[in-house]
Amino acid sequence: MGSSSGAPEGLSSPVKRFCGYTTAHGLGRFSEQSNLIGRVIWVSFLLATYSGFAYHLSTLFERFLQAPVLTKMTVSTLQFEFPDVYICPTNAVTMSRIFKKLPQNEVTFGEFFLKKSVEEKIGIYSFDLSSGRYDLELNDMTKALLSVLHSMEEIIMSYFQFFDIADAAKCRRTPSGEEYSGNVSSAVVYGFTTMTVTSINTSAFTPSPYRGVKQCMRWNDAAQKLLSLGESGLANRLLALNFSDSESRCRSPPGLPLSEFFPIASRSVFRHAGCLPLALTNSSSFNFTCYRGGLSSLETCAECCGRRSFQYMAISRQDCFCGSSIGGYENSSSVCNASCLHDNSAICGSETAVTVLQIRDNGSRPLHVANFSDLDAISSGPYCFFADELSDKLNAAFCEIPYCQISRTYDCIVSSEDKLTQQQRLSRYTGRRNVTSTGRRCMPWSQLSTIEQVLKARRGSEVGFMDEVREMLIQTPDRLEGESDNYCRPVSVVVDSVNIHGPKDFQRFSAIDSEVPVCIPEDFWANIPSITIKFGYLFNMIFQTCNVPLCYTEVPSVTATIRDSVGEHLLARQFGSDLNAGLTECSFAGQKCTKDDFLNVAHPQLGMCHKFLKQRFTANMTSTQLAESQLSIKYFTDSTDSKGQTVSNIDKLTRVVRDSRGSDATQVAFKAVIVPDSSFPWASNGVNVATAQRMDVHLRFDKYSRLSTSSRPCLETTEPITYRLPSWKLFTSNEDSGVNSDAQEIMRSSNWTLKLSMLRNALLKLNGSSALTVSGSQFKVSDRENCVNTYVVEKFTNTCRCLPGMLPIQEERFKKLSYCFDMYSRGNISANTEKCYIEQLSKITQYHFEAMNECKSPCSKTDFSTRYITYPWPNLLSVQSLDFLKKLASDFGYRHDISLMRGASSIYYLYLKAQNLSDTPVINRSTEAIQSFESELAALQNRLAQLTVQAWQSRGHEVSEEEAYPAKNLVADIGGALGLWSGISILTICELLELFIYLGQALAARVQAQSRMQSKNADGQPEESARPESEMVALDTDAIQVQQRVASS
To answer: Is 664 exposed, middle or buried, given 0-12, 13-18 or 19+ CB atoms closer than 10 A?
Structure first.
């Protein structure tokens, strides 16, 4: 412990000794260096090795924090559990539920009393929608549902499409225009749409205008005029409106449209009345001459006579005469053989005769209604009266008040069962669509008048014109002078043109008269051939139609209001899949199952589903027996008639009964949802079972155990959850006297809220409401899908303050909220609710992804691994299918319990047709009969599907996770790294503890020595400013002695 000179050691001595004997590499070499270079080298070595250790240590902690897991798969000890199986048809409505049943008497007498032949029975059961048979029509309740839909669509869209239009003084929303309150006080009258004048002096000829404006007279003056003419009834109705004495503005008084005046009014016509002697023009009834020479056109003569209220006109080659009667003169058509000077193709009398045309249907009536525009949309609405300038006769005409533009959000057409009504609504379209049905962008209407310049700018001299446009009148339902847009519109375009090649003929013609939305593509010029053409032909080439959707397909609230207010479950029960007509055959483990072994469930995502009730079959089965059991279901979709046709209203009915968009019901028979016992049947778990196919589903029952880590947390425990899934076992009748009576009342009602209420009550009344359970269904197994759905529903409800009908809803939420379009709970439907609903629908996918990041999966769950095998079924071939069809018909009760449903009748029909074909000798079978049968056989196969469900293996797999890098591995790796980089071990740590003890004792001894010296100084001994080196060494003597005693002990 002493130095070579015998002097006591300092504090550095224990450190030097530690560096000499420690197991940590490099410290001894460092302490032995006697020069600076050696120490620098070993300091560098030590820093490098300890830096390497620090990096190695960081990688070990990084791996540990990632919490990797190790997955193990072993044979499970779980017993096989047969799953819950749901059959969810893709067809929201079926033929048997929407069509009238077969007439009972006709079936009974034909089968059992009259014993008709097979061919006659085929006629009884025929189900061909294209045949036009009187008995093939929708039942009354289906008609009532369509009536409710049309009422809802009309009332909702009448508000939504114009809810942002507050000023009724600028435009009108309805054909009648009763709501219009603007200041327009002029009526519009029209001439003839067509006019031809040949070989004219274009600089001198001025055609009469096609469209004219007449100043309205005061309403009370018109009433007094009618009174003076003996029409007191209509006159008094006008006076009863209590217009002010100065009121002359265009109006459409409620209950008094212009059509009410048609019985007392004459109308303009233009028809040939005969060829009469020239002496007619000198009679008292033909005493006015419009033109004596210089007649430019027939239309000019007609307008001149019409303005003076004459009923007839007579023309010679250049003369025009007007008259009120042609009585007493005989027709001599052979005499009229002279061509008109203004038009060589027309006949204008002769030297001794005149051609007579009738221009008004009845000139003696007190009122004349002027010509309307070719565009039907503006040939109605507000009107007014005016007087002829020349004859002072009372006239009336429409004022052409434009229609208001449809809101951009609700750009659609209200549907109708009546084709004429549907056409009329298209003819009034004022939406914002500006793309043709071929996807080409529309050109602004204002460019139509300069179309020649546009075409020349694009094609140069490649395209030429045979005529020159003088005037062009463009009319659309909402077009105002000076405005321009490129929206699709019903349109009337009347053109005045003059030939520029050859004779200078004038022609007025209708270039386009479309009662459906059309437009001209911006790039119309690209498809014009390099020719010289007339404008009339050009317009026919370049106009294209536009597709405008129907509102019930675009606006969710139209159909959702019916579902939410009436109840989607009630609609599904009445119009949806009926296992009486849909379940062809069913078996489980060799035992027959029937429709009574299924529970009908109204699923918010999938519509009606049929849940197989397995308890009756599995109650006393062992796990091995369950694993060996097979569930087989043969299903008939009942989606078309015998020829594969369906009704034109199928889309409407489908959208009302179920919130469905884009499901391919023609190729998919049903969705099979197979889940573990007591699990919710999420739509994501469904698999499509195609028509004309058999699908075998093989299952393996597996258990999954996850390890919950900070980076991959999972739920240790889950709670049961209760969703509202209305269910029922019994099917209601779709026809009885009570149902038909209720349906008739619904169709007669004009009050849309009353219609909804009556429909709901009628559906509840059918077979009593006791068969229906609307309370929540509890599911014991909760999974991640539940968390995701809860997240989406909360996002939706927090924004819209209502419940979305297309998502599963927990029962407890109905205590505070109701469905978004439930009229009984929320009152009238608001545009804000509709807007919020649409916005949230578009965000559901976004919410789903957000929820996937937030939601945890259960740490332990059981599920099925599945294998799907599909192949064609029943794969029928012509007459060889007779045995299959016979059994199929028997399964549906043929001859022993005949069903009157249309679906079953189509099967009877095809079976009897196969039998008839089989009984016919091959040589006598016509090609047409064989082809018809094969076509109908293919249609039947496309309505059949089969599903089988069974175990794949009796024992499943158990997949578990454990830590791939636990804490003990981390400690071991840290020790290995210390040994690798610096040789440090557990003994090195002991040596460090020993060093710290020695240093602590030495430091304590020094502190004691310094304390004694301070005590001596305090007793009066002089303090020296410096001490000899020997005295300084002596200060450490006590500390060194203590170290020696500890060492010797």
So the answer is: exposed
Beta strands 693-705 and 944-951, pairing class: parallel
Contact 467, 511 (CB under 8 A): no
DSSP secondary structure letters along 831-842: HHHHHHHHHHHH
Strand 693-705 versus strand 957-963 pairing type: parallel
Length of the chain (residues): 1049
Q: ω into residue 874 within 30 of 0, thus cis?
A: yes
Q: Closest Cα partner for 491 from 451, 452, 534, 545?
A: 545
| Token pair of 1004 as six digits | 């304590």
Q: Coil, helix or strand for 226?
A: helix
Digit-coded pLDDT (tens) for 950-976: 998 888 888 887 777 788 888 888 888
- Residue for token pair 């009679």: 283
Distance of CA 689 to the CA centre of its chain: 24
Buried b (16+ CB within 10 A) or exposed e, 970-980: beebbeebbee
Return the SS3 of 1025: coil
Q: How far is CA 547 from the centre of its chain?
A: 16
Residue 528: exposed, middle, or buried by beta-carbon count in 10 A (0-12, 13-18, 19+)?
middle
Residue (of 550, 600, 613) closest to 571 by Cα position: 600
- Measured CA to CA, the distance from residue 545 to residue 530 in angstroms comes to 24
For the chain, the straight-line distance linking the first and the last C-alpha, in angstroms and rounded, comes to 14
- Output the six-digit token pair for 652: 């409407």
Task: State the pLDDT at residue 780.
Answer: 81
Residue 812: which residues within 8 A CB-CB, separation 6 or more? 722
Predicted confidence band of residue 945 (pLDDT cuts 50, 70, 90): very high
Please name the residue that has the structure tokens 């369509």.
146
Among the residue ranges 296-310, 667-681, 725-739, the one predicted with the least confidence is 725-739
Q: Which two tokens stand for residue 410?
A: 């609700």
pLDDT confidence band for 1022 (50 / 70 / 90): low
3-state secondary structure of 510: strand
Whole-number Å distance between alpha carbons of 612 and 617 = 11
Start-end of H helices in 959-1027: 967-982, 986-1018
Q: What is the pLDDT of residues 410-427, one digit of tens each?
A: 999 999 988 889 999 999
What are the distances in angstroms from CA 39 to CA 17, 44, 45, 862, 974?
17, 9, 10, 66, 28
CA gap 900, 902 in Å, rounded: 6
Contact 360, 269 (CB under 8 A): yes
Main-chain phi, psi angles of 128, to 5 degrees: -125, 105
Q: Which residues pair with 728 in a beta bridge?
A: 600, 772
- Given phi > 0 = left and psi -120 to 50 = alpha, else beta, which region is 200? beta
CB atoms within 10 A of CB 752: 19
Distance CA(49)–CA(528), nearest Å, equals 84
Instruction: HSE, CB side, 13 Å, CA atoms: give it for residue 630.
Output: 11
| Of 655, 527, 607, 648, residue with least CA distance to 145 | 655
Count other C-beta atoms under 10 Å from residue 1002's C-beta. Answer: 20
Q: E strands of 162-295, at which residues?
A: 186-190, 195-197, 211-215, 265-277, 288-292
Half-sphere exposure of 395 (CA within 13 A, CB side): 30
pLDDT digits (tens, 9 = 90+) for 479-509: 765 566 899 999 999 998 888 877 777 888 8
Q: Which two tokens mark 927?
A: 């090609």
* Of 1026, 1028, 1035, the residue nearest 1007 (C-alpha): 1035
Q: What distances in angstroms separate CA 256 from CA 241, 261, 262, 382, 384, one per listed residue? A: 10, 9, 11, 10, 12
Instruction: Count Cβ atoms below 10 Å from residue 549 Cβ, excluding itself.
Output: 14
The token pair at 908 is 């009877």
Instruction: Quote the tokens at residue 222.
Output: 């018109």
Using CA atoms of 241, 247, 253, 257 in order, give the dihedral in degrees to the nearest 10.
110
